[in-house]
Amino acid sequence: MSAPARGGMWAEPNVTPMIDVLLVLLVIFMLIVPQVRRAIDARLPAPAAGGDAEPASITVQAFGDGRYAVEGDPEADGRLTAPALLRRLRALHASSPDAPLFVKGAEGARYADVFAALDVARGAGVRLVALTPRGEEGAARK
C-alpha cells in the first residue's frame, strides 16, 4: 500500500495485539477444558464368589396405554396401573434388594410411559434401574 499523499495516518489496523490476545485465550482454554471433563459414575458388579451364577433381575414392560407388566412374576400377570406397579415393585425389591430392574417399552409405547415406569421404580426404592433397548431381549435376564 502506498503512503498517503499529505502525511496522514495509515488506515491499517494493528493486528499484533489481537493475535496476542487470541493466543492467550487459546492457551487458557486448552488448560481449562481437560479439568472440566467429568465421567459418568458407573458401579460395576462384584464378581460372584460361587461361580457364574447371575443375579435375578426384574423386567418391567411399559405399554402404550399407561399400563405395565412385570415379566416372570406370577402375582402380577396382568397389566398393572402405576400405583399397583409401585406396590409390586416394593414387594419384589424387599425380597431381593440387589436385583437390577430393566424397563423396556412394548411396541407402540410412548417415552412418557417408559420414563413413568422409571420414576415408579425409583419411588419403590430400586437403586439399579436400566433401559432395555429394542431388539435386545436377552439383555434383560430372567
Question: What do these coordinates show?
Answer:
The chain is α/β, with parallel strands linked by helices and 142 residues long. It has a domain at 58-139: Nucleotidyltransferase, domain 5, CATH 3.30.420. The chain is built from 3 helices and 4 strands. It has a 4-stranded mixed sheet, with helices on one face. Helix 2 (82-95) packs across helix 3 (111-123). It is elongated, with a radius of gyration of 29 Å.
**How far apart are the first and last residues' alpha carbons, in Å?**
80 Å
Give the helix tally: 3
Query: How many strands, what sense, and barrel or not for the largest sheet?
Result: 4 strands, mixed
Question: What is the third-level CATH name, the topology of the domain at 58-139?
Answer: Nucleotidyltransferase, domain 5
Tags for this entry?
3 helices; elongated; 4 strands; alpha/beta; four-stranded mixed sheet; Nucleotidyltransferase, domain 5; 142 residues; disordered C terminus
List the helices and strands and how they pair.
Layout: H1 16-36, E1 58-62, E2 68-71, H2 82-95, E3 101-105, H3 111-123, E4 129-131
Parallel strand pairs: 1-3, 3-4
Antiparallel strand pairs: 1-2
Task: Give a short synopsis of this structure.
The protein is 34% helix and 12% strand. By secondary structure, it is of the alpha/beta class. A four-stranded mixed β-sheet has the order 2-1-3-4, with helices on one face.
